[in-house]
Amino acid sequence: MKKNILLQTLTVLSLATVFYACKKDNTPIDPRSAYQKDVEKMIRFFKDHEPAVEKFTVDAAAGSTITLQNGTKITFGPNAFVKPGGTVVTGNVNVSARVFIKASEMILGDKPTLTSDGKILETFGEAMVTAEQNGQQLALNPQQKPPGVVAPVGVANANGANRDIAMWDGDTTVHTETSGYNHENALTTITETYTIKKGMQWTQIPGSFGSAGAATTYFPLDNLGDWRNCDALYGIAAPKTTVLGYFGDKFNIQTGNNYSGQDPTELFFKVAGVNTMVKLYNPIFHPIAGKEGLLSYQNSIPVGANGTFLAMSTLNGKFYAEMRDVTITPDAGKNFMGITFNLQEVSEAQLLQLIQQMNTK
Length: 361
Hints:
Elements: E1 4-6, E2 21-22, E3 28-29, H1 36-49, E4 54-59, E5 64-67, E6 73-76, E7 81-82, E8 92-100, H2 103-108, E9 121-133, E10 136-137, E11 139-140, E12 148-151, E13 163-181, E14 187-197, E15 201-212, E16 217-220, E17 227-233, E18 240-246, E19 265-271, E20 278-279, E21 282-283, E22 293-295, E23 301-302, E24 306-315, E25 318-327, E26 336-340, E27 344-346, H3 348-357
Parallel strand pairs: 1-13, 18-26
Antiparallel strand pairs: 2-3, 4-8, 5-6, 6-12, 7-11, 8-9, 9-10, 9-17, 12-16, 13-14, 13-15, 13-17, 15-16, 18-22, 18-23, 19-20, 19-24, 21-22, 24-25, 25-27
């Protein structure tokens, strides 16, 4: 990954709604410790099932085309690599690559399709490629044409005409918040610090574009060791609203309060028939009982859009999940849509199956 940014030192670890029990000797016990194993359980699940890094050997002088398991092809021209000092590389080079084109890959790889300001993106391929020789990391040769990525996902249209799609730079961040919104979507300021794990946020690269045809998309790979995404803004002409997902007693209180790469309670949304994956990662602040959960960016989800939510949580050593098809409709008289999920216990295999079902939504 290119960056791991911690925007500020995290010193406050308590949640406003957590109360302390006591041992028989009246020593306070932090009940969050009982939930730490659930955090680790979710981390293991993602680690065990995340898309694998695929490895290849490329002749640096001659160039080569590699083909990933999902059908993506990456073509490296002759003399495509240079050493840190700028010397052109010859001989065999070890290339590692991951390209996500499916909803399940975006979930398990924790690469949702959101801009840095919360806008929804339709993706045509998210790519991370590295290269090394004899343990030395290599860069792309700036004197050569950038490697080309051809992903087996396109934009359906009658005449097969190409569509220019912007390129985006991906950044993995851990963000901290001390203000947000409550269960009624009212702005709330708190004294605690929550860690917000966005998974990925994308910033547009000025002047850089790929081209989507009827069945495939081409985009240039301008750098190694950075996430790159060929994405179009999902900008349908409709008003937007905020979605609040209520998990009730299936919400793990360590969500937003741990330093791992995954939260124990997570919520995803996919627009029907569109290659999107929205991660709702903002905790609801100071909820009343039964309204614990997560919410989207403010006014970011199109009203009238059909789509599917996947809610998941680990609690007391068990997985819970629910998949629900919805039409985005604000609650009567409210500036948000509230969804009360009814998560049921699932096995690890069943949870993985639900995630894979998102590919067809």
